[in-house]
Amino acid sequence: xxxxxxxxxxxxxxxxxxxxxxxxxxxxxxxxxxxxxxxxxxxxxxxxxxxxxxxxxxxxxxxxxxxxxxxxxxxxxxxxxxxxxxxxxxxxxxxxxxxxxxxxxxxxxxxxxxxxxxxxxxxxxxxxxxxxxxxxxxxxxxxxxxxxxxxxxxxxxxxxxxxxxxxxxxxxxxxxxxxxxxxxxxxxxxxxxxxxxxxxxxxxxxxxxxxxxxxxxxxxxxxxxxxxxxxxxxxxxxxxxxxxxxxxxxxxxxxxxxxxxxxxxxxxxxxxxxxxxxxxxxxxxxxxxxxxxxxxxxxxxxxxxxxxxxxxxxxxxxxxxxxxxxxxxxxxxxxxxxx
Length: 339
What we know:
- The protein is of the alpha+beta class.
- It folds into three domains: 3-165, Beta-Lactamase (2-Layer Sandwich); 179-270, Beta-Lactamase (2-Layer Sandwich), CATH 3.30.450.20; 283-337, Winged helix-like DNA-binding domain superfamily/Winged helix DNA-binding domain (Arc Repressor Mutant, subunit A), CATH 1.10.10.
- Helix content is 45%, strand content 19%.
- The chain has a five-stranded antiparallel sheet with strand order 2-1-5-4-3, with helices on both faces.
- A hairpin with a 5-residue loop joins β6 and β7.
- The chain is globular and about 65 Å long.
């Protein structure tokens, strides 16, 4: 068995056993170390439906909190040289930058010598990003390192997939009320509703990723929004594996404010959830259509009539959705989507 095979087995075993977010981040680093030695690692999950929008969840190991925050700042503000649009133009969707390159100030401040960034892409799209870091006194990543990391793309995509689908399909706790966070032109939190403060306290309790990651994503929404045309809003969905239910954070500018952004945090509704839910669970376009119609209620005959399909066809597609998601029937599927 090769080191890559052992890495794949160890990594997938960790997520199957339901390890915590921190333990999974350590498992990612441990599995990659024999293949591509590194001093720190981050693995960020998104999905094809999200495109290059805000990332959904992440795992960090070995990186200082201040560096991770500053790295996300440079990436979301468009300053970092390894942007996804650039990486996708390459034969291998990967790149390396060093303390002598465009990121020199950020790297030198934090003692980082080199970063490799790899988009996790397959025929369906981009599912996330792998980042590996080496200290200033270490050897820079080379083409062989990039190739070795790229060979692990299917394993890392499978890891992200297994992490998402092992989350609770049907929420076990009542939905929290929506919360609002106001971000200033400096992307820092200016104020927050009591409900939003409660969600941040929840994160401090270690329920999901470290709080700094969530705060960095909030500031990242603010940065990305300011790079979009006027009137644009940006949405990030967080999976149930992180939050106990699928959560949505939507950012938009406040009317009449001095560049302030409002970020609304609330459980994801079915229309918001279905595109990414369909990606992670591998639903076909027809299966997504039927799942969406199911959320509108009604009998099987009424559902078939609305979609101009036979009852037999609708039933066959529903059975396929049940099999892919692991639900026992219509009521459980509706409960999963109508959060």
